[in-house]
Structures are given as C-alpha cells and as structure tokens.
TrEMBL record:
Keyword line: Oxidoreductase, Peroxidase
A Pfam family: CMD
One Gene Ontology molecular-function label: peroxiredoxin activity
Organism listed in the record: Corynebacterium flavescens
Protein name as it appears in the record: Alkyl hydroperoxide reductase AhpD
Boundaries of every Carboxymuconolactone decarboxylase-like domain copy: 257-331
Length: 400
C-alpha cells in the first residue's frame, strides 16, 4: 500500500526525500496505520468500527481529505446508512481545541449503536480535552461493551490520528501547499455526562502533583496492565527495551503489541536519530511545550529533563514549566520552536506558511522543520495516551 501520510499530504519528491532521512519514523508510522486500522485479526474491534472512528476523528478535526479517505474505507465495510450516520456525527462534533475543564459532547446511540456512540464520546474527549479524562470515562466505554484490550486499541487509534493528521497538514504546508482549514467554534456539551466507574476500572487513590515539576513522576493506570507473567513472546518483543517490562504503562499498551511496537520505533527515530536536522535538546523542548499545554504533567517531567540533559537551558525550561507556554524562553530559536509547536497543537490546525517562513528565516533547514513537526505531533499522540489511560503520581520522596 502507498504510504498514507505521503498520499494524503500529496507529498512531492522534496518532501519524500525529507521523510526518507527518518526512514524508521516513516515506515513505522505506516506500520501504526496497519496495526490500528487494518490488523490481520481485528477481534471484537471490527474494521468497520476502526474506519468509523478514524473518519470521525479526522472529520471533527476538519482534516477533510483524510476524513473522506477513511469514509471511503468505511463504505467498503458497511452500509450507506452507517456512513451517513458517521457524517452526521462529524457535523455534530466539529469543534476547536485543545481545551481543559470544558463540557463533554455525547453522541446518540440511536444513530450508530451504543458501542460506536461511546467510541465517539471517547474520541471527542481525546481529541479536544484529554485532560478531562477520568476513570468514569473508562467506565463509560466498558459499559458500552469495550473490553480492556479494545479500549487500548481504540485509544491508540485516536491518539495516532492526532499525530498522523498533524503531520499530513504540516507536510502539505512545508511542500508549498495552502491546505484549507476553516475556523471552528467550540461545540457546547454537558458538564456532567453521567458516566460511572465500573468494577473493572482501576480506580485507586493517587497522590498527584499539584502542578508541573522539574523532577521525576510516577504514573498509575485506570485500565489494568498485563502482569509480567501474562506477557506473551510477541508482547515482550513489542516492548523493544526489556527493562520496560517493569513499567505498568508499557505493560498496558502491550495489550495491542503491534501498535506498541510500531509506535515505539516511530518514537525512537523521531527523537534519537541525530543524523542532521534539529538538535536533541530542541526536539525535547517541542515535546515539553506540547505536554505543558495539554496538561500532561508526566510527559512534561520526563522530557524537560531530557532537554536539559542534551544541553537545554535549565532556567528557560523551568519558566516553561512554572509560568506556562507563553513564558520567555530566552532565545529567538526556542521561541520559534514554541510558537510552531503550539500552532501544531491547535485543532483546527493553525500551523501555516508564516510559521515555515519564520523558521527558515531563523536558520532552520527543512530537515529541522520536519523534526520539529514530528516531535510536536508525536506528543499529541503520547499525551493522549498518558492523560486518558491513567494519571501522574507524585513519588513519596517528593510529598510533604
């Protein structure tokens, strides 16, 4: 199959050459599509449901070309009535974000059935306000028939699309196109959707951080991770690094091993391939900016430290953590990275030709711009998993 990102971005030879310099990121983004949209054995999470969620996610994000692509795939799996129902759900769900402490949009089971309606509720939460996730939101999925493995795959799918759609958009801009992204108002929903925690949800009391911190944090899941003893050979291999078996987060994602493996290899090439392009400290800065805005204390704690370890300015990083994403980062280069990363976060996508022009004028070559796009976009994937499948925990040694 043709590379989906290149296809939907209408990538020319120059963009294809840039992506070839991060060949593992390119091939494993495609492998993520395969694992999440077209796995050999989809199980209870059917192809039709996967395409419906993908079309919905692209549509409410106003990525019209991607939405039509996924709607075409959906049409091959189901009836015109279902496709029309998904289109109506998209029209109902178009919004702007990301935001925090907002209202929840709830979709009608009368149109698409209880299970898919709950998936749309979940996808809308992940796309527009993942910080508002809770054990009750997981319970809502379980009550609609989503088991643990499929909840992980569903979350990976929506989070992956948050990466894929941003990369597609940014590559179009970088290639000289002017993709149309209409403005959108925030759609209003309900403050309390009435979702309840179920017995299957991990709902332990957690002492979370009071805000963003410049030290390590723990993380506790709401969906039960697999035990070390339960892991199959495929799931162990999907961890890539054997020491990750000690992490509840990675044992949780191992419920969908193909998706975990492809995601991890995408991550490694984006952040650790230092053959040209953006400096490591700058890539980690982009990850920290995105995490700071999305409200992911855990991801911010990890990647602020990595930026500093790679030579980033400790004082500037602390201002970002403690003052917010509008803080003065002390250099024109980091300010350009901050502004571009924030534009890539916006839904509908705000990254445009002016950002490319500013980055080029600031000394960024196109490989560095692609690395920035990848780094910021990837953490729109990572944050949505961390924020919606569990929560950050303050280690005991930092508690007063």
């Amino acid at each position: 199959m043709e590379d989906i990102i290149n296809q939907l971005a209408q990538a020319g030879p120059d963009i294809e050459a840039l992506r070839a310099a991060r060949a593992d990121a390119r091939s494993n983004a495609q492998a993520s599509f395969k694992a999440l949209l077209e796995p050999e054995n989809p199980g209870p999470f059917s192809y039709g449901e996967r395409y419906a969620v993908a079309a919905f996610s692209a549509g409410v994000s106003q990525s019209s070309q991607a939405a039509e692509f996924y709607l075409d795939l959906l049409a091959d799996e189901t009836s015109p009535q279902v496709v029309d129902a998904v289109r109506r759900a998209i029209e109902h769900g178009v919004s702007s974000g990301p935001y925090k402490h907002g209202s929840f949009l709830v979709f009608s089971a009368a149109d698409v059935g209880e299970r898919l309606a709950a998936a749309f509720d979940w996808a809308h939460l992940l796309i527009f306000h993942p910080k508002d996730a809770s054990p009750a939101a997981i319970g809502h999925l379980y009550s609609a028939g989503w088991a643990e493995d499929d909840t992980v795959s569903l979350s990976q799918l929506v989070a992956f699309l948050s990466f894929q759609l941003r990369v597609i958009h940014a590559l179009s801009v970088l290639g000289g196109q002017s993709p149309s992204v209409p403005s959108a108002s925030r759609v209003e929903g309900v403050t309390d959707p009435g979702w309840q925690v179920t017995d299957s949800v991990v709902n332990e009391e957690v002492v979370g951080p009071a805000g963003f911190v410049n030290h390590s944090l723990g993380w506790r899941p709401w969906v039960a991770p697999l035990s070390k003893e339960e892991l199959t050979r495929e799931q162990r291999e999907a961890l890539i690094q054997p020491q990750r078996i000690d992490s509840a987060y990675f044992r949780l994602l191992a419920r969908d091993p193909a998706a975990l493996k492809a995601r991890t290899l995408t991550d490694f090439d984006i952040f650790y391939n230092t053959e040209g392009g953006l400096a490591r400290a700058d890539r980690e800065l982009a990850a920290t900016v995105v995490s700071r805005y999305n409200g992911c204390e855990y991801c911010a704690s990890v990647h602020q430290a990595r930026s500093v370890e790679e030579g980033g300015d400790r004082a500037a990083i602390d201002r970002l953590l403690f003052e917010g994403v509008e803080a003065d980062l002390g250099s024109s280069k980091w300010d350009l990275i901050r502004r571009a990363a924030l534009a890539l976060m916006a839904t509908p996508f705000a990254f445009g030709a002016k950002h490319v022009e500013e980055l080029r004028a600031g000394g960024f070559d196109d490989q560095s711009i692609l690395d920035l796009v990848y780094s910021a976009s990837f953490f729109n994937w990572a944050n949505r998993l961390m924020l919606t499948l569990g929560e950050a925990e303050l280690p005991k040694r930092f508690r007063k």
